[in-house]
Amino acid sequence: METNSDSKPSRLRGAIRNSWIYKRLQGPIFDLKGHMFDLYHGVKTMPQVTLDKLEIDSPNKAGGGIYAGTEPKYFRTILNSLEIDFERFHFIDFGSGMGRALFLASEIPFKKIIGVEFSRELHQIAVKNIKSFTQRKRACNDIESVCEDAMEYLLPLEPTVYYFFNPFNRELFGRVIANIERSLAQSPRETYVIYMNPVNNDLFVNSAAFKQIGGGPWHTLHVSL
Questions:
Q1: What global pTM score does this model have?
Q2: What topology does CATH give the domain 51-224?
Q3: Across-strand partners of 143?
Q4: Domain limits of the chain?
């Protein structure tokens, strides 16, 4: 009887991820990967930070989420799945924190990479990181962190890949999506959305401006119509 050689490793990975010991160690493993990333690249993108520990001059502070650095391997897999001409696209991370997703995105030849962060403390760390970041395989050198509220950020009229690591509560997320929808209506352009930890994914599913084209265990992927 023929067997699928790819199915055994896949089943094994699934069994490991569903095991109690993996679930118990998932947090420490995530942290270890973050510290290894920082050590290798000469940056500081750890630890996780809750907004109540930060001074943020914005009425939207209560609607913000926890800052946590993006898991490198999973993020790279998502970007590599996009069949686009990256050199035409901006990459924008809303709630970019200390900037890890920006540095991971720089491995791809984006036209420009922008992080939007309303915490001045996290933004200042990201600015220092941008200056010290070492990456021999960097394909994009135009990286910027902007200290601004996502509700007020003026979207560039370029083809864009938007990245959200669940940075807002439902109300703020709806307002950000509405801003993107208005911008696309005024200036139609090719746009993709990577949504990590997609607890409010229905906001995109129910949007007349996007359709879902993919996803995985921890993300969904959408494209503008």
A1: 0.85
A2: Rossmann fold (3.40.50)
A3: 113
A4: 7-41, 51-224
